[in-house]
Structures are given as structure tokens and as C-alpha cells.
Amino acid sequence: MGIKGQILLVLVIIGWLGFDAVHCYNRPPPGKNIAVPHVGDDATPQQVHISQVGQDKMRISWITHEPTSATVEYGPSPSANAFSANGETTFYNYVTYLSGHIHNVVIGPLKPNTVYYYRLGESDKTYNLKTTPSQFPIKFAVVGDLGQTEWTVSTLQHIKDSNYDMLLLPGDLSYADVIQPLWDSFGRLVEPLASERPWMVTTGNHDVEKIPIIHRTPFTAYNARWKMPFQESGSDSNLYYSFDVSGVHVIMLGSYTDFDSDSAQYQWLKGDLENINRGKTPWVFVLVHAPWYNSNEAHQGERESVGMKASMEDLLYQARVDVIFAGHVHAYERFKRVYNDESDDCAPIYINIGDGGNREGLAKKYQDPQPDISMFREASFGHGTIDVVNASHALWSWHKNDNEERVASDTVWLTSLSSNHACIA
């Protein structure tokens, strides 16, 4: 075996070990892995996805194998030629891998709740996207630990059928685990959805991809491929940021970057929470990867959960955050409003939704007895939706993939803390 073969073997072993090697537990087998090939020539756009930038703009990201212009033509009619915008093109190296040309273009201003058509670079293909509404109601799809397996395909189809406005993903996107072509496959897999609705994401442990000596920089692929609007929220890192959409303030946190009280992330979060205007955004959602509350036997006692909770829980409680979504544990669980391990009517609801379709399988072992603060738990692949109807009420539903059918298994009405006078000073 030559040196390149040896390196590849090491990378494969590291990738399949992932970052869970020191936290061993048995999982049932997942669905078969899916590899999505590129169709077209080297100038054909691929891995197209969009993300929201501010109130009235969208960032369109795509990759080509040969240099093309970072230009988007767009408009409200299928001719897609009313407006044009230019952006930037970058690439990255990862050991022996060289990425394609990564294009990022911000378009707008755009009208809310409107379909726009667009073309990329020199390509004749026309895509379409729908902007988010400017006010209630708005529907979010929420899914973690997505991966690219047969279960992922089912989950994506169910999400598409939900007719959502925006997708929120609390980490672990591609499960490339250092095998960089898997990022390309993942981008092609999610393109049909991610090119039509904004996908707002944050990082998980499988997105870190830091290898001692060989590749010391974490999040290389994630930061290059999935650029989020961090600068607009005053953050200095693509790993944590916030944004407002349709009456909801959404905060994305990084479980695998510094979070102690003297860290840049903590200081940014403190300032962000202080600047929330509950008259403008009555709802506040937070997404992390490693859950702070978890009655599954998987991922108990990890620093990213215990340490981040100890550092930041009080901040989020005092700010009256409504819901905290997490991934990491490959199962579903919904908690009561909880603060300091006890039920509290003015605390956030915790929802773990790391069941998108990862290649590692489900985490089926739960602690017995079920804690009083845990309301519903089940180890099944699936996704969630949250329909924010108005300033005070939202409908949360978890849909499991039952024989590939979309089945609503846990549904509950939520009331915003901003509408609870007992919780707002």
C-alpha cells in the first residue's frame, strides 16, 4: 500500500470512529448510506443552498468544478432577469483534497413571502426560492444529525411535504467525518430542498473534522461551505450567530467552540440576549448540538453538555428563552420547562431532535425510570415542525418516520414566555 493509500485508510478509520469513540454504546443498524453523484459538466452548478441574511436578503451558495462567475440573475418571474448580483468565490484544502469553486452571492432586497426565480453563473438552469413571511404565521422545520442515508431521504421528503418556511438544523450535517467528497454528496442530496427554502444551521461534533498533526484547523469544510449571517448579528465567528425572522429571534450556538464565561461566544451571547426586543420578536429559540437535558443513556456527562449548561443556562433562563433545540442524541425527547434540573414555568422547553437519519443508527436505551421533567421520548428517525401562529401561541409536532410514512407522534401547543405576565418583570 502506497503512502496515499495509507493516509486514506487512516482518514477512513478516523472518520468512521467519529468523535463518539470514547462514549461507546450500542446502536441498531441505520439505513444504507446514499452517495449522490454530480450530473453535468464541470461548469454546472451543484450543491445549491440558500440562507437568510437580514430581513430581506438571501445568500445563495453553490459549487462548480471549474471557474465560473459568482453572479446571480433573479426576479419574480420565470425569466429571472429583473435583477443581478455579484459575490465572491473561494475554495479550501483539506489534506490532499481540494474543493471545487465555492460561490456565495447575496441577493435583495426581496419582498416577503414571495417566490423568486434565479440562475447561477453562466448556467441556463432556473431555480426558485420562497422568501420567509414578514410576520406571523411562520413554519419552521427542525431536524438534527441529518447525514445521508436511506432514512435521511425519507426525512427530507417528509420535511418537503410539510410546506415549511425555514429549516433549522442543530448540527451534524453531512457525517463526512474528514472524507471530504461526502460533503459534496451531502450538498447534492439536500439541494432540492435547500435551494428553495433558507436552511439555517449550526455545528455538531461530526462537523469539527480536526485531526492532530494532519489537519489542525477545525470546521474547515463547514465554514467554507455553509456560510451563515454571523457578522450581521455582531458575532466574529460562523460558529455562533443570531437572526430575526417573522417575529422570532433565533440564536445558533456552537457546542464545540469555547463557551466559558470569558469566551468570545459567551460575551457575544450575553450582549445578544440583552438586545432582544420582545415587542418585535415575542419568541426566542436557541439551537445547540449537545443537549443540556437528556434522559437517554447516550452522551451522558460530556463536557459539551455539562460545561455549556453550567456556563450559559442562567443567561438563557434570565432572558426567558422559549425553546432550546438540540441534536447529538439519536432519538427524540421533549422536556417540560426546566431550569437547574427542576420544573420552572418561566424556563425554556428543551427538545432533543438528533434523529434526522445519521449513519450511526438510533440511541434506543433510556434511563429508567423516566425523569419527571421528561414529557415524551422515543427512539425513531424523524423531524419536527413548529408553527408559530402569533405572538403567544405555537404548535410543535414531532413526526417520526414510521415505515417511511410521516406520522405526527408528539404534538403540543406552546405559549410564549413574553405573553406570561408572571415571567416578565
Protein described:
This protein is α+β, with helices and mostly antiparallel strands. It folds into 2 domains: 46-130, Purple acid phosphatase-like, N-terminal (Immunoglobulin-like); 138-419, Metallo-dependent phosphatases (Purple Acid Phosphatase, chain A, domain 2). Helix content is 17%, strand content 31%. It contains 6 helices and 24 strands. It has helices at 3-17, 150-161, 181-194, 220-225, 264-274, 303-318, and strands at residues 46-53, 57-64, 71-75, 83-86, 88-90, 93-94, 97-98, 101-107, 115-120, 127-130, 138-142, 166-170, 199-202, 241-245, 248-252, 283-287, 323-326, 332-339, 342-343, 349-353, 374-378, 382-388, 393-402, 405-415. The strands form 5 sheets. Strands 14, 15, 16, 17, 18, 19, 20 and 21 form an 8-stranded mixed β-sheet that branches. A hairpin with a 6-residue loop joins β9 (115-120) and β10 (127-130). α5 runs parallel beside α6 (303-318). The longest helix has 16 residues, at 303-318. The termini are far apart. Residues 138-332 form the Calcineurin-like phosphoesterase domain. It catalyses: a phosphate monoester + H2O = an alcohol + phosphate. GO terms for molecular function: acid phosphatase activity; metal ion binding. InterPro entries: Calcineurin-like_PHP, Metallo-depent_PP-like, MPP_PAP, PAPs-like, PAPs_C, PAPs_N, Purple_acid_Pase-like_N. Its cofactor is Zn(2+); Fe cation.
